[in-house]
Amino acid sequence: MGDAADRAQEAVDTAGPDDFEFEKEETSEDILPDDERAAAVEEEKEQVIAALASPRFFAGIPIAPPTKSELDIVNTMIYGLPGSGKTHLAGQGASSKHLGPMLYINAEAGTSTLRKLQLNKNIQIIPDPQQQGAVTWEQFEAIYDELDRQCYNSADLPDFRTVTIDTGTELQKINMDWVMGRTLAAHPDRDPDVPGLHDWGASTNRMRKTLRQFRDLPINFIFLCHETTERDNKGVMWKRPDLPGKLANQVAGLFDQVMYLYTKEGASGDETKPTEVSRMLLTGALEGYVTKDRSGNLPLVVVQPNMHDIFELIHK
């Protein structure tokens, strides 16, 4: 067997191109007239296109290759100190063709910044500041239900292109009040000001679930938070969204962009010229800051940011 194999290998090694000519099998293309062959090719092309266009399933679940979405939207978290300009930055987006009209969910009972922007009907504040302060948790969930109905169970387009929540920090406290109300209804002897471990768990789970539902709507979603600082086990001080416990990182994981807004003073002014203050938006991963940009299109720091330009950079 070994000698036969050696001889076969030697034949292959020493053979020329002519030694490997095979009789060509006649195909349908060889016997079809040119016009019929062209029609057959076109029909095959249409079948391939139809197969690609029709939904495919795996285990009964629709699947698709990664492609650019026909619907360009953003889901973004912006956090920073009070007064850093979060409300101004988000509200300004209502004047953009990509983001307006905007539904602005008020969880802080403060809307003076939005009034100064003079956005007229491009932005609607809920609840109406003239009628009520901050939104309640029951109202917050009712807002989601209506947006979900408009997006998926209505022949018309949703009333709004963007939903903004201001702020998530206060919204979590509103949620905890709702959780404690349910706890006290079942256990009237409980201290209303001291949530237990079960209450914290219920609040965290409800916040995470509801924010994920908002994020999954086919509209833009902007989530504002205050900031807090904490030291990790290596001694590094981290700025992160002001949400309790693990919720800060869990909620940040829901968004494509998590950005930190801060102010920077320029040259000192005098009586005739005030000190220049610039707003800076940190967008990329940097030690000491919970930030990210999944698009990869934003510069590390955006000076004097506005939401219209940020949207176009994300989707360029």
CATH class (first level) name of the domain at 77-253? Alpha Beta
For the biggest sheet, the summary is: 10 strands, mixed
Structural class: alpha/beta
What count of helical segments does DSSP give? 10
What order do the helices and strands follow? HHHEEEHEHEHEHHEEHEEEEH
Q: What is the number of strand segments?
A: 12
Second-tier CATH architecture of the domain at 77-253:
3-Layer(aba) Sandwich
The name of the CATH topology of the domain at 77-253 is: Rossmann fold
Distance between the ends: 65 Å
Principal-axis shape: globular
Low-confidence stretches: 19-29
- The residue-averaged pLDDT reads 86
Q: Could you characterize the architecture of this molecule?
A:
- This protein is 38% helix and 20% strand.
- It is an alpha/beta fold and 316 residues long.
- The chain has a domain at 77-253: Rossmann fold.
- α7 (168-186) crosses α8.
Helices and strands, with pairings:
Elements: H1 2-14, H2 28-31, H3 34-53, E1 56-58, E2 61-63, E3 75-80, H4 86-92, E4 102-106, H5 112-117, E5 123-126, H6 137-152, E6 162-166, H7 168-186, H8 197-216, E7 220-231, E8 237-241, H9 247-252, E9 257-265, E10 277-282, E11 292-293, E12 301-303, H10 307-314
Parallel strand pairs: 3-7, 3-9, 4-5, 4-6, 6-7
Antiparallel strand pairs: 1-2, 7-8, 9-10, 9-11, 10-12
